[in-house]
Amino acid sequence: MIDLIGYIFIGIGITFDFIGCLGLVRLPDLYNRLHASIKCVTFGTCGIMLGVFVIHGFTDVGIKAIFCALFLLLTAPVSAHAISRAAHLSGVKPWEKSVCDHYEKDK
């Protein structure tokens, strides 16, 4: 039963990773693609790591999976924000049909 729950988490993670990869291919500009890739990492990869933890439990593999997931949850959104801010400051324009640009308002 525990293995089934772990495989469900892994399946959900793989699904999020697949959707994130589609977003990288289909979305129009850097900011939208960055959003898709960070969602892919936080939900997809952390889902896979959680599934590995559920399957292996508190062994060395399970503890490493939890630490990797926590590290990704803490660093991925911060790095995405830093990349998007640096791109905006260096002059990368958003897609012309973007609804809002909060960075431009702050200048």
The helix-strand sequence is HHHH
Contiguous low-pLDDT stretches (5 residues minimum) are: none
Structural class: mainly alpha
What is the residue-averaged pLDDT?
89
- Please give the alpha-carbon distance between the first and last residues: 55 Å
> The biggest beta sheet, please?
none
**Strand residue percentage:** under 5%
- Number of separate helices: 4
Q: Portion of residues in helices?
A: over 70%
**Silhouette:** elongated
Structurally, the number of domains stands at 1
Q: Please compute the radius of gyration using only Cα atoms.
A: 17 Å
Would you count the extended β strands for me?
0
Would you mind describing this structure in some detail?
- By secondary structure, this protein is mostly helical.
- The protein has one domain (2-93).
- The chain is built from four helices and no strands.
- It has helices spanning 2-26, 30-56, 60-89, 102-106.
- The longest helix has 30 residues, at 60-89.
- The radius of gyration is 17 Å and the shape is elongated.
- The N and C termini lie far apart (55 Å).
- The mean pLDDT is 89.
Summarize the structure in short:
With 107 residues, the protein is mainly α.
Name the descriptors.
single chain; 107 residues; mainly alpha; elongated
